[in-house]
Amino acid sequence: MHSILENRPSLKAQIDAVAEVAGYLWLKGWAERNGGNITVNITEYVDDAMRALPPISEARPIGKTLPHLDGCWFYCKGTGKRMRDLARDPMANGSIIRISKDCAHYEIVADAPVAPTSELPSHLAVHDYLLAKGSPYRASLHTHPIELVALTHSRKWMEKDVATRMLWSMIPETKAFCPRGLGMVPYMLPSSVELADATIRAIDEDYDVVMWEKHGVFAVDTDIMSAFDQVDVLNKSALIYIAARDMGFEPEGMSDEQMKEMTAAFGLPK
Ligand SMILES: [Zn+2]
Predict the structure, then answer these.
(1) What is the spatial distance between Cα 238 and Cα 129, in angstroms, rounded to a whole number?
(2) Catalytic residue among 32, 44, 107, 119
(3) How many A from CA of 80 to the centre of ligand 1?
(4) Domains along the sequence of the chain with CATH
(5) For ion ligand 1, residues whose CB falls within 5 Å
(6) Active-site residue 119, yes or no?
(7) Average per-residue pLDDT in the chain?
(8) Cα of 143 to ligand 1 centre, how many Å?
(9) pLDDT at position 264, please?
(10) By percentage, how much of the chain surpasses pLDDT 90?
(11) How confident is the model at residue 190 (pLDDT cuts 50, 70, 90)?
(12) Ligand 1 mean position to 148 CA, how many Å?
């Protein structure tokens, strides 16, 4: 079977990056069973020949009307699919969809009629929000990073920016490469409209990575590798914190002055 990725190297590079990240999520133990989701806005890689392709599914309702997604295309992980399988074969464990003119339906276009993740409405709502804001962000990632999820089982770390401050203070790179910190969303039912709305509010408060209490993170960035990197540096800091505690002491952390110095030196947003 021909793949839509054939002779489209720039589109293929995007899907290859999704597969690479999916492999990392599995290796890190962040993607048990079918856990986690990836959605990437691939509209800028779509050519006229792609636009002319017939759909391979009927038009299905998104469940929301998302006016900024007019003419948009996405790669989405398939519902019930495993990250470890997606890493080997992204087009058999995810699909490319286009949004219908009414901005309330989608059709699967390639390669196989793999139904997108059940989290599609919330991921698409985030993409709609990002486009409305004029954001350059095109990728969204949901995953279950063990140590970051563990933090959320304590009230203390769920307080606004308490975890951010600790994580930033473990190693300078975390502040440099996750410069907006970790937004906190209290526990809500997975897949619920409430959780999607709270996630968008947290992104709007100026976070790229949002923590869902006792569940996982939702991260956005320009591309999927960058979204992964933001989560990876945060979790690295959590591991350093745990290593210090395992050595029998509370880690000192960088001082406020040292962190302010970094903000100025690197032109960071916070
Ligand atoms: Zn999850």
Answers:
(1) 30
(2) 119
(3) 12
(4) 1-139 (3.40.225.10), 145-270 (3.40.225.10)
(5) 216
(6) yes
(7) 97
(8) 6
(9) 96
(10) 97
(11) very high
(12) 13
Which pair of tokens denotes residue 76?
A: 């989405």
Compute, in degrees rounded to 10, the torsion defined by CA atoms 224, 225, 227, 231. 140
User: What separation in Å is there between the alpha carbon of 30 and the centre of ligand 1?
Assistant: 10
pLDDT confidence bin for 30, thresholds 50/70/90:
very high
φ, ψ dihedrals at 76, nearest 5°: -130, 140
3-state secondary structure of 170: coil
Cα(79) to centroid of ligand 1, in Å? 12
Long-range Cβ pairs for the range 15-19 (8 Å, 24+): 15/75, 15/90, 15/91, 16/90, 17/223, 17/224, 17/225, 18/75, 18/86, 18/90, 18/94, 18/224, 19/86, 19/87, 19/88, 19/89, 19/90
Q: What is the pLDDT of residue 263?
A: 95
Q: Amino acid letter at 214? A: K
